[in-house]
């Protein structure tokens, strides 16, 4: 333990969404930390709460219907949930930046890309129009955009998907954030472009020394990019480990299933579908969850104990945590 | 969304009304309000009214009070009775215009949707008609044909026809490309069967919604026409006429304008609420308001 | 762009021609001899005969239409039966109050409706949304003349703040001009605002759910900047469209509002012409109003490209 607080510490975060009169949890009791220069991947199926967690860090949960019920989100020891709106606005896009999933829809169609990149620089760094434009140009060069001078005055619809994702990345990096959240940054792209974008992100990460929170369902991307991994299931962290340790010996049956579901030949499949078909059954909806482990109904190792009591997230090995009563019984992946 | 269904499953016999009030409050409020107007119009003779044309010169411009609930007008006629009877005129106009505009529009829309040759000509004419502001078109028609309730209804209906025709045409055109209609055509199904089975049922929901909007706009426009002196003959106590007669004295006898004005606004509001509610409940595409 | 504008302009010609034909034909839809209809009930045989030759009613239908259109294109809309003066002269005389009222009420409508509709969408489902939407339904249901009288009773009779009726040309000073314009423009503006607010809300709701709005928030932009710079411009196309369509309603409203407030504009001219059965004037005014409507919607069409760069001509 050093005296310095970690870059990001999320403590016992609980987020719920209301539909009708019922409030159902999307994220339950999630805790983790992230240091500067580190890449932490959050893995899980859609609806597992991984995106909600990343949005909660930005305080971008749509409210209503969503609500952060409990927990703390500490950025360098400062609780973001305690900030007022204008203080939070100063942090968004400046200290914390986000790369969104859909480059096709996350850019404003009626503004030139130059304006969109320059916007946050002008806002957070108080630069004038000409300086901000120059900075936008520098950013385009940094994300290796071909013929950047022309791109500045183009609109998103005039660019290809890969180019748009570079713009999205340039926008996120414009203010040199200390924390970068990337929500499925490559999912919407086709395979060759995915590789380029991942290369770019790796380069940038080494230049920036920022902490990266990488949200994905793609274990291929995780293996290439992450230092540590959090596995989400039904809104809870079921496993937390260094990436090598997790890949070598998963300590939760769900992770085991995920690894089994990972396609072997193509490293990063081109489809946008979640490839979890090998795990039988579905994530139980919030209303029908029992007192025990949420994964128990789909789990080959489940016993009565699993159905009766929620297993705690415990250290099973050096730095390797899992929430499973039967971690020791798991076989290694074939 | 699932909660109300569960509730009505438990107590279906008494919660239908309550459910509709909760799920479509606008539709419910509009329907209740409209029902009140209809009852007031039909039961006018038994609701404490006197002859709406009875003149009592001595009581002219009497303010609202115990004898004249809504006051008396310039020549001492009872504004309350005139307002209640006026509802009959407005409802007649609304219903008449909606029925006429829907039937003519349906016919033109069907022809135009099925015949390419007729389509070009008819839609150009409809575009032209739509470019003439409806009040002006109606006013001109009435000025030339003479003021009568029938002519007002015809004139207003003509102004509304283009929108209905375009609506029906768009339904037909979109259905014509649907696999089940194409299959029916290839299978040699007779034209009138295709029309009855596939086309007309799909026009009902949008036409119902459009019809309520036409109703509302007709009631409004009739009052405008009467108000500017080019609508329903002055002898008939329509709301527009009552207001027009009170126009000159409204500064010191505002009740003559006010009460029929409120009745008029509430009626149009009721029909608009019903229209919005039906649109949300039936969710037909194509319907355009305005 | 210029080529597209020209093409669009050309495409309005058939519509205008049909409008002209409809307006011209109205007279002949009436039962009986148009000359008799025009001359009125008290006219003598000689009056009718004179009118018949003066308006070329003795010529064949198509020829009469061509004569009329030919004149209209050159700005000759015939002569008023009532005052014996050229229709175009009467129209030009009455133009200022109508233009002032139309633009004034349009301005009020937009200034009122766009922010309210935007806020309603931003806080959709909340109290503000319900108030704004309630206002919109009421605004849509209350006839202009009822609203006009209500405003007069409140502002002029009760509080004595503004003149009751009438019009002062702008040449007489901006103060009196605005004083007289305020209430009529407000009553007409509110009705139109109801329509625009509804569409603004619907369009903004759609835009607010888009991913790029979340991106804008993630940049740390303020709410006002997000709504105005990122939201409104994306929501603009349906809004300007409804402003164009609502222009027809505005024209009908002008006729009524001018009657309520005793404004000597084109609307009054129309009503007077109708009451006097001054057919050349009726034809002329309807033609001018309809052409304005067509031109306004042409401009609306051309404005799409300003708001959305994806629309190319």
What labels describe this entry?
heterotrimer, B: 290 residues, mainly alpha, MetI-like fold, 11 helices, C: 313 residues, 2 domains, 13 helices, 77% helix, 0% strand, globular, MetI-like (chain C), MetI-like_sf (chain C), transport (chain C)
| Cα-based radius of gyration of chain A, to the nearest Å | 20 Å
Strand percentage of chain B: under 5%
Cα-atom radius of gyration of chain B: 23 Å
- Structural class by SSE content of chain A: alpha/beta
Number of helices of chain A: 11
Domain count of chain A: the total is: 2
Q: How many individual β-strands of chain A? A: 12
Structural class of chain B: mainly alpha
* CATH C-level name of the largest domain in chain A: Alpha Beta
Task: Catalogue the unreliable spans of chain B.
Answer: 1-14
Major sheet of chain A: size, sense and barrel closure? 8 strands, mixed
- Inertia-based shape of chain A: globular
- Beta-sheet strand percentage of chain A? 15-25%
User: Average pLDDT across residues of chain B?
Assistant: 80
Count of DSSP helices of chain B? 11
CATH topology call of the largest domain in chain A: Rossmann fold
Order of helices and strands of chain A: EEEHEEHEHHHHEHEHEEHHHEE
């Amino acid at each position: 333990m050093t005296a310095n607080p970690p870059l990001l510490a999320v403590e016992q975060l609980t987020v719920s969404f209301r539909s009708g009169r019922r409030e159902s949890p999307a994220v339950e009791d999630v805790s983790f930390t992230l240091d500067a220069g580190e890449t932490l991947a959050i893995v899980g199926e859609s609806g597992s709460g991984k995106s909600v967690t990343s949005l909660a860090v930005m305080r971008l949960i749509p409210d209503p219907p969503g609500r952060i019920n409990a927990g703390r989100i500490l950025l360098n020891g400062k609780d973001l949930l305690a900030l007022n709106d204008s203080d939070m606005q100063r942090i968004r896009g400046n200290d914390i930046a986000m790369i969104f999933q859909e480059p096709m829809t996350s850019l404003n169609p009626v503004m030139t890309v130059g304006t969109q990149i320059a916007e946050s620089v002008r806002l957070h760094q108080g630069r004038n129009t000409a300086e901000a434009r120059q900075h936008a140009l520098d950013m385009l060069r940094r994300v290796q955009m071909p013929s950047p001078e022309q791109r500045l005055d183009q609109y998103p619809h005039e660019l290809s998907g890969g180019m748009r994702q570079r713009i999205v990345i340039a926008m996120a990096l414009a203010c040199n954030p200390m924390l970068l959240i990337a929500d499925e940054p490559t999912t919407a792209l086709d395979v060759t472009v995915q590789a380029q974008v991942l290369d770019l992100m790796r380069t940038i990460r080494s230049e920036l020394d920022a902490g990266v929170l990488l949200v994905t369902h793609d274990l291929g991307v995780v293996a290439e990019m992450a230092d540590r991994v959090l596995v989400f299931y039904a809104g809870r962290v079921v496993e937390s480990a260094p990436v090598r340790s997790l890949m070598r010996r998963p300590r939760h049956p769900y992770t085991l299933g995920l690894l089994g579901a990972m396609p072997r030949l193509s490293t990063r499949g081109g489809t946008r579908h979640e490839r979890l078909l090998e795990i039988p059954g579905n994530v139980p909806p919030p209303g029908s969850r029992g007192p025990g482990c949420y994964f128990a109904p789909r789990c080959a190792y489940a016993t009565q104990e699993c159905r009766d009591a929620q297993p705690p997230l415990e250290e099973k090995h050096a730095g390797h945590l899992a929430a499973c009563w039967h971690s020791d019984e798991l076989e290694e992946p074939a | 969304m699932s909660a109300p269904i569960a509730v009505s499953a438990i107590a279906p016999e008494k919660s239908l009304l309550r459910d509709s009030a909760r799920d479509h409050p606008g539709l419910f409020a509009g329907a209740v309000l409209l029902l009140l107007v209809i009852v007031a119009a039909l039961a006018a003779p038994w609701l404490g009214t006197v002859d709406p044309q009875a003149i009592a010169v001595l009581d002219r411009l009497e303010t609202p009070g115990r004898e004249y609930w809504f006051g008396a007008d310039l020549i001492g006629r009872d504004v309350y009775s005139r307002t209640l009877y006026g509802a009959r005129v407005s409802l007649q106009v609304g219903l008449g215009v909606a029925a006429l505009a829907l039937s003519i529009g349906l016919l033109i829309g069907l022809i135009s949707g099925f015949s390419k040759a007729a389509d070009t000509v008819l839609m150009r004419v409809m575009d032209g008609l739509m470019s003439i502001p409806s009040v002006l078109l109606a006013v001109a028609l009435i000025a030339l044909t003479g003021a009568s309730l029938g002519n007002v209804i015809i004139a207003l209906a003509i102004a509304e026809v283009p929108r209905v025709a375009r609506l029906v045409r768009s339904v037909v055109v979109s259905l014509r490309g649907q696999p089940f209609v194409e299959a029916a055509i290839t299978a040699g199904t007779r034209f009138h069967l295709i029309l009855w089975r596939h086309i007309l049922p799909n026009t009902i929901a949008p036409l119902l919604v459009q019809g309520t909007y036409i109703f509302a706009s007709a009631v409004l426009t009739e009052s405008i026409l009467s108000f500017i002196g080019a609508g329903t003959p002055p002898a008939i106590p329509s709301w527009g006429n009552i207001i027009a007669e009170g126009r000159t004295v409204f500064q010191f006898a505002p009740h003559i304008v006010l009460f029929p004005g409120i009745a008029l606004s509430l009626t149009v509001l009721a029909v608009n609420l019903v229209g919005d509610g039906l649109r949300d409940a039936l969710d037909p595409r194509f319907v355009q308001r305005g | 762009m210029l080529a597209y504008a020209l093409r669009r302009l050309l495409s309005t010609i058939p519509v205008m021609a049909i409008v002209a034909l409809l307006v011209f034909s109205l007279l002949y839809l009436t039962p009986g001899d148009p000359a008799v209809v025009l001359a009125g009930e008290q006219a003598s045989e000689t009056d009718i005969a004179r009118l018949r030759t003066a308006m070329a009613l003795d010529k064949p239908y198509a020829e009469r239409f061509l004569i009329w259109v030919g004149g209209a294109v050159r700005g000759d809309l015939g002569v008023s039966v009532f005052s014996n003066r050229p229709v175009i002269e009467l129209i030009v005389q009455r133009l200022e109050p109508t233009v002032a009222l139309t633009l004034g009420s349009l301005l009020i409508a937009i200034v009122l409706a766009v922010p309210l509709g935007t806020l309603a969408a931003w806080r959709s489902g909340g109290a503000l949304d319900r108030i704004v939407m309630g206002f919109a339904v009421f605004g849509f249901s209350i006839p202009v003349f009822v609203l006009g009288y209500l405003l007069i009773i409140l502002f002029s009779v009760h509080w004595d703040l503004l003149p009751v009726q009438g019009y002062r040309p702008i040449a007489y000073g901006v103060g009196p001009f605005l004083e007289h314009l305020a209430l009529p423009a407000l009553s007409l503006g509110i009705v139109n605002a109801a329509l625009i607010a509804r569409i603004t809300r619907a369009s903004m709701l759609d835009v607010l759910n888009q991913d790029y709005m979340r991106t804008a928030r993630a940049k740390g932009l303020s709410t006002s900047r997000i709504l105005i710079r990122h939201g409104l411009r994306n929501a603009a196309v349906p809004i300007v469209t409804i402003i164009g369509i609502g222009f027809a309603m505005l024209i009908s409203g002008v006729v009524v509002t001018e009657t309520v407030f005793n404004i000597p504009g084109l609307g009054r001219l129309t009503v007077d012409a109708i009451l006097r059965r001054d057919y050349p004037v009726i034809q002329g005014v309807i033609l001018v109003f309809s052409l304005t409507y067509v031109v306004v919607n042409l401009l609306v069409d051309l404005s799409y490209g300003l708001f959305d760069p994806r629309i190319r001509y």
